[in-house]
Amino acid sequence: MLTVGDIFYGHSVDLDYKGQGIVKHQGYVVFVKGMLDDEEAKIKITQIKKNYGQGVVLEIVKASPDRVEAVEKELGSCDLIHVSPVKQLRWQQKITQETFKKIMNLDIEVHETLTDHRDQNYRNKSVFHVMDTSHLTLGLYNSDNTKLIPVDQFILSDLKTNRLLKMLAQSRPVINPKVLKYMMFRTNLKQEILVTLVATKPLFHGREQLINQIREITNVVGITVNINDDPNRILGKKSIVIYGENLITEPIGDIEMMISDQSFFQINLPVIEKAYALIKQEIPTGQKIIDAYSGVGSIGFYLAKEAEKVIMIESNIESSSMAKLAKEKYGFDQVEIIDEKAEKVIKHFDGDYLIVDPPRNGLMESFIQTVLKQNYKKIFYLSCDVKTLVRDISLLSGQYEIKDVYPIRMFFHTSSLETLAILNHK
User: Fold this and answer.
1) CA 27 to chain centre
2) Position 83 in a domain
């Protein structure tokens, strides 16, 4: 019987949905972080449950040809950094297909994973912890999420963010880490940057020195202080502008989206725009579109020029206010923006096509029941959790059938899985 601390040699037969190696040993299935399929390794058991265990690699004995030298191997935010980009694309396609089989008992064809093959410096939003030192030290959690590791560069963040990280690591301004808790950077394809200092109160020791150093970087469009009023969340509800404005713009199609420090926006724009293009080619001109969980309206505005009507539904006031700014700037009279929870108000609207981009926990049951009473020609479901996506499609399957499923490699070197499913009304 396996116990915590046991060490054994094992062979992995597959990768699970978290990108962990699957090893069978003494009647247990052992999930091993950092191990690829068809590898042999010396493994240490870290956790035992009734029917499975968790392990870590002590030594790779036989390596997979898909293993690469990990640049950021200590960071939990890069849990697949040891896997080649090509393998990550194949793995995501396979996991997506297997999830439909496990939950819906469906053997479906899944498209090749959508990507732009840019596996580094793709994130336009990055958040770093302020470590407990008198000189500013930014950090990210290690692979076990047990301690912070200082960082002066991050392989996933865009080049602008990395330049600022390097400058701050070299200048080491004196700050009060009891007040300043996080730093958040938002950038765009024009290499502009919006910097947010997340602190428990507006003023803290070293604030002005830090602001002056940030301003030395070119194309800083704004610096804000966000008041962290809940220890379980990073951002609070209140942001104070201390330089420039709390606004950064990013082009989507022919318009520029407006984003503040608190509004939701896609982290890898070039890749998600490929998904938007797939949606656009499925919708004829002159249609009525409902865009639920619309954020700042990036999908809706992308489609608006050729639509008769676009109804955006978004409960986050900061995001919907950014959408309203874009609507006013570009004169989209055919766009209506509803500040409400989608599951609460969807019953009051009808349309030809429905787009949903819900949070990780998927669609509320009340939302699904309302959708089943309506007759959309197609539903476009963007998801950041393939399990809840398949669960929801199963609930919709009485009236809607799967046309296409596209895995989307939004986040190379991580186990995050983005997916676009296109459903036809039966």
Assistant:
1) 36
2) no
Which helix (H) or strand (E) segment is 129 a member of? strand 125-130
Residues ≥6 apart with Cβ < 8 Å to 185: 125, 126, 127, 128, 157, 160, 161, 164, 193, 194, 195, 196
pLDDT per residue, tens digit, the chain (426 aa), is 889 999 999 999 999 999 999 999 988 999 999 999 999 999 999 999 988 999 999 999 999 999 998 776 689 999 999 999 999 999 999 999 999 999 999 999 999 999 999 999 999 999 999 999 999 999 999 988 899 999 999 999 999 999 999 999 999 999 999 999 999 999 999 999 999 999 999 999 999 999 999 999 999 999 999 999 998 999 999 999 999 999 999 988 888 999 999 998 899 999 999 999 999 999 999 999 999 999 999 999 999 999 999 999 999 999 999 999 999 999 999 999 999 999 999 999 999 999 999 999 999 999 999 999 999 999 999 999 999 999 999 999 999 999 999 999 999 999 999 999 999 999
In which element (H, E) is residue 150 found? strand 148-150
- Structural domains in the chain (count): 3
Tell me the residue range of the domain where 234 lies.
125-250
User: Is residue 164 a part of any domain in this protein?
Assistant: yes
Q: Tokens standing for 352?
A: 């030809």
* C-alpha of 340 from chain center: 23
CA atoms within 13 A on the CB side of 2: 26
DSSP for 266-283, please give it.
-SSHHHHHHHHHHHHTTS
Let me know: does 193 contact 226? Beta carbons within 8 Å: no
Picking from 195, 226, 250, the residue at the C-terminal end of a domain is: 250
